Amino acid sequence: MEGLYFVCLIILSAVSICTVDCCMCDFSSRPDKVCMADFVVKAKILREDLDFGEYGDFPMLKNYTVLYKKKDIFKGSHLLGSGNTAVIQTSGTPWNCGTTFELNKRYLISGFESGGEFFTNLCQWNPEYNTLLSKKRREIRNMCRDQSGPEKATKVV
């Protein structure tokens, strides 16, 4: 009987640790994730910089320098500005929802902006661009076109 209590204790401990330290995302569909994102851009990963913070064992942040063209901004052109590079941050570990990109590959990166900095994570939709069918690319571009940029002024009559 003591063995059963011990096994139950181990299982409950594992579940409680997992719910505290694991990445948890909502169950939104891909279109919803794109619509809720502040920016969506097709970008090439140029560089990865790891920030280990004061702990040193695992990176706290990953900073990805990305290259994009103005025409490759699907959503959020007013945030990304007139440049052609940006730094997109993510957590350094997957259990904190950090995502990993491969250097020199192109991705459709979606994320959010806060204080002039750009962030993404595993809960966003960040597929490798070449894996998307052209039909899906057009759908996303059209979906984002309706929501990109600052609000248009309405004419008062």
Describe the structure in brief.
The protein is α+β, with helices and mostly antiparallel strands and 157 residues long. The chain contains four helices and six strands. A five-stranded mixed beta barrel has the order 1-2-4-6-5.
Question: SSE layout and pairings?
Answer:
Elements: H1 2-21, H2 30-36, E1 39-51, E2 61-67, E3 73-75, H3 77-80, E4 85-91, E5 106-114, E6 117-119, H4 134-145
Parallel strand pairs: 4-6
Antiparallel strand pairs: 1-2, 1-3, 1-5, 2-4, 5-6
Q: How would you sum up this structure, described in words?
A:
The protein has 157 residues and is α+β, with helices and mostly antiparallel strands. It has helices spanning 2-21, 30-36, 77-80, 134-145, and strands at residues 39-51, 61-67, 73-75, 85-91, 106-114, 117-119. A five-stranded mixed beta barrel has the order 1-2-4-6-5. A hairpin with a 2-residue loop joins strand 5 and strand 6 (117-119). The longest helix is centred in the first third of the chain and has 20 residues, at 2-21. It is globular, with a radius of gyration of 20 Å.
Question: What portion of the residues fall into strands of 2 or more residues?
Answer: 25-35%
Poorly predicted parts? 14-20, 148-157
Report how far apart the termini are.
Answer: 80 Å
Number of folding domains?
1
Report mean pLDDT, rounded to a whole number.
80
CATH architecture identity: Beta Barrel
| Cα shape | globular
Strand order of the largest sheet: 1-2-4-6-5
Number of strands: 6
SSE order: HHEEEHEEEH
* Rg over C-alpha atoms, rounded to the nearest angstrom: 20 Å
Largest sheet: 5 strands, mixed, barrel
What fold name stands as the CATH topology?
OB fold (Dihydrolipoamide Acetyltransferase, E2P)
Helix content: 25-40%
> Which structural class do you get from the secondary structure elements?
alpha+beta
**In CATH, what is the class?**
Mainly Beta
What is the overall number of helices? 4
